[in-house]
Write a sequence for this structure.
């Protein structure tokens, strides 16, 4: 009995699992984390109306969700100021990024991103046989000019940009993005990941017409709306592109409670405003805690703060390891020189109290280690 | 400004949306359905413990779900009598079928299925450029010998078999499946869709070792467990194959409430037994209702019944259209001669009362039309 016959591309993919969740780390260390501040989840949670909507809908889970997302789609179209023909809704930005790569990247096609930017995008590009070209960050920001120049140089099918960016929390103005768009080569699609846009200053989202064929932008309910576990996101783009997603997407893949909850969350702008204030307070508190340890933080337009540990990547990795061992779940950038930082998500006062107690100890441990 | 550059395969895919949900039909007819009996949903719903578990977890939706599905995985491994290394959990069988096709089918590769079998599988095969070869049903059952012979003839990468089958509700014994497996060509993987297996007589699931490299089998929480809107399913197969899914799956794509609810549902075998009895009663009632109209039904090992409308496909389509117009959501097979039937999902007494009232009228309308 032989097994199935895998294509060369599949055989070439690494069989290691690329992403480790905090639950795996908790099992490894044999204890739950005391503070969950590593995945940029929104610990302040979703609107109580979203929670209630999901609870009310729970007994109806025997029904498939509407594959056209009719009500949520109408609300999102109004929210984004475009027609529903410009929006595709999917099970998180990860899924929509995967669809985008599948729609455009054939084996050998060039794709451009920043070195150290979102690894799940890279995972999809590799998974479909695309060839990744990476440009370095510049002053801890994604380098717009370098991304566009590289895209032209390698004739990229896609160029990925997160704004605000993960893992540093930095951002470009919408005007700068619009200017960069003029440098985008013909036939290259800008994949603009706006997962954190609600946390950013006014003017960070570029004014781009929904029918601009050069850009597809991604928004999510995972961050500001506090629904990472629901898996609801959407992409906005030109009608032709949005139609193409329908050719390949899993039409019935949305969880029914997620669909209902997202609609309720979108309608509760008061809760969103409150969350944004709480996140702002938390970011100031993280900066204060870092400052008390003699460390500086980067300005952030997201719900997390990059703390510069003041030395090299090995030192920051030691700080991170000490925090993890002490029950504080945080993460850090993969690539130098950004890896001099650790990345801490906004938490409640009780979470940040644990950080305030653990960070000096972790620094001392790293210095002595 | 030009748009993005699509590969030839993507350009070749139809831009029509292949699957119409009942909500779309409701909006088209301007009124909700009076009875929802068309999508083989389990109207008796999930275990109350599953509902409660999802409600209790709703406020924690800000957390991503555990990407390893640790607790659910352990419970499923115990349930299936295999190690967790033999199971991959995904967002519905549709998603897992898509992954399976992606793992094995390159453009031009041959895939075999039955003419009129599950269209979503065909959608994925087309979407990855596979070439579908279809064999006809035989006596309203998927034809095991013909499927295996065709697989050998075309050197298929995959052969799809649903047991019990959709849309007819017929089935083969596990022993017959095992015998057919001996005819499976080397290098062909049997995609065994057991979505309805819990409804089937004892012995319908073949005894196949989890590490048999010739087969991957699919199970779901959408049917007997009453959680179609949750999107939780799993595949069981050899360790190498299961590892391969990890190379491409969206690791963080599971809804957190779905994960929690599925675990609770799996643990409530009492509820499952009760649902199976209610479904059995409903199927008998559908047979009685059809009989009162002078129609025969096919024996069914699923939660639906195929009613033979007694004439050709055009006649059955007229009956179906009349039922839809009268507010009864049902569906029917696509392909002759199976399309002499309409397909009715098991419903509660109040749903079937509406069917009992609507079916004679629909038949009269079709006869006069």
């Amino acid at each position: 009995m032989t097994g199935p016959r895998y294509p060369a591309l599949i055989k070439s993919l690494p069989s290691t699992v690329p992403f480790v969740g905090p639950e795996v780390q908790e099992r490894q260390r044999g204890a739950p984390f005391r503070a969950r501040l590593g995945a940029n989840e929104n610990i302040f949670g979703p609107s109580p109306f979203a929670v209630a909507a999901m609870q009310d809908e729970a007994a109806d889970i025997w029904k498939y969700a509407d594959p056209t997302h009719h009500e949520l789609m109408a609300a999102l179209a109004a929210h984004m100021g475009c027609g529903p023909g410009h929006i595709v809704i999917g099970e998180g930005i990860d899924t929509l990024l995967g669809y985008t790569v599948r729609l455009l990247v054939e084996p050998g096609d060039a794709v451009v991103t920043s070195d150290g930017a979102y690894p799940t995008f890279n995972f999809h590009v590799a998974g479909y046989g695309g060839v990744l070209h990476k440009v370095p960050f510049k002053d801890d920001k994604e380098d717009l000019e370098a991304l566009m120049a590289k895209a032209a140089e390698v004739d990229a099918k896609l160029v990925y940009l997160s704004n605000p960016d993960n893992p540093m929390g930095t951002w470009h103005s919408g005007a700068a993005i619009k200017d960069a768009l003029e440098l985008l080569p013909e036939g290259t699609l800008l994949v603009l990941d706006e997962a954190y846009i609600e946390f950013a200053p006014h003017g960070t989202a570029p004014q781009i017409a929904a029918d601009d064929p050069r850009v597809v932008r991604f928004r999510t309910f995972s961050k500001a709306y506090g629904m990472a576990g629901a898996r609801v996101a959407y992409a906005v783009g030109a009608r032709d592109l949005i139609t193409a997603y329908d050719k390949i997407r899993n039409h019935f893949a949305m969880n029914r409670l997620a669909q209902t909850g997202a609609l309720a969350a979108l309608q509760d702008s008061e809760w969103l405003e409150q969350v944004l204030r709480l996140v702002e307070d938390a970011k100031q508190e993280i900066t204060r805690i870092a400052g008390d340890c003699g460390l500086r933080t980067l300005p952030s337009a997201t719900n997390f703060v990059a703390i510069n540990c003041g030395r090299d990547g090995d030192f920051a990795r030691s700080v991170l390891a000490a925090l993890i061992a002490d029950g504080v779940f945080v993460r850090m950038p993969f690539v130098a020189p950004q890896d001099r930082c650790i990345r801490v998500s906004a938490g409640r006062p009780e979470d940040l109290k644990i950080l305030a107690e653990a960070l000096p100890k972790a620094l001392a441990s790293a210095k002595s280690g």
